[in-house]
Amino acid sequence: MTSSIRIIQTEDGSQSLYNESLNETYHSTHGALTESQYVFIKQGLDLLVERGDKKISIFEVGFGTGLNALLVQKYAHEHTDLDISFTTLEPFPLSSKLISELRYETLIDGVVQSDFEKLHNCSWRVEHQVLENFIFTKYNSTLEEFDTNEKVNLVFYDAFAPSKQAEMWEKALLSKVCALLSDGGVFVTYCARGQLKRDLNSLGLMVETLPGPPGKKEMVRAVKSST
User: Does the reported pTM lie above 0.90?
Assistant: First the structure.
């Protein structure tokens, strides 16, 4: 699969990937870094911090380039009062060549290329104490195959778009992810499809439609109701 993937430049100067077999990019062409910072950090992680959460567990569907994980690592470095764990799934890891050519450190202050490569090169299914307050674990697994009893309070749903991977947005898989959320847990995604919002609502989440990042009208944030 990685043989059909190539690096592209997005409008904010950051890189993303284009998957030729899916005819799909990994991030918005209007700005990969801008999208990740807005959707997942500002509308997700920042919300938990602003409400006073100090222990934050994140589950990501779609490790991809590792940009979201790198931004969370940077966040942990800058917020030493937080305790962050980050678990992510990636069934189709990138090649070493692609990883070495992605240069996010040129646009993200406070990180170096070795930080980025470490996230990609560390072993699977093992907890890595990357920072004193940042634990990182990745699984070479599909969402269908993944199984855990752990609860999280933040989900980054960063799968390919419904038009490209419809199965990732079916209610059965969304239900599996929502079951991982603790009460008050937050689900964020760049997608704002009507069916997604209806499904999340039926799964016990309070759904909010927010303005999207540049080039996208809307995104979704949903919070799991207390039972």
Answer: yes
The CATH fold assigned to 31-224 is Rossmann fold (3.40.50)
CA-CA distance, 118 to 62, in Å (whole number)? 17
Alpha helices in 9-57 (DSSP H): 32-36, 46-50
Asked if residues 194 and 20 have their Cβ atoms less than 8 Å apart, the reply is: no
CB of 147 closer than 8 Å to CB of 179: no
Structure confidence at residue 226 (pLDDT): 75
E strand or H helix at 171: helix 171-178
Identify whether the C-beta of residue 212 lies closer than 8 Å to the C-beta of residue 26: no
- pLDDT one-digit tens code per residue, 47-87: 999 999 999 999 999 999 999 999 999 999 999 999 999 99
Across the chain, where does the E strand assignment appear?
5-9, 15-19, 24-25, 55-61, 83-89, 128-131, 134-139, 152-157, 181-189, 205-211, 218-224
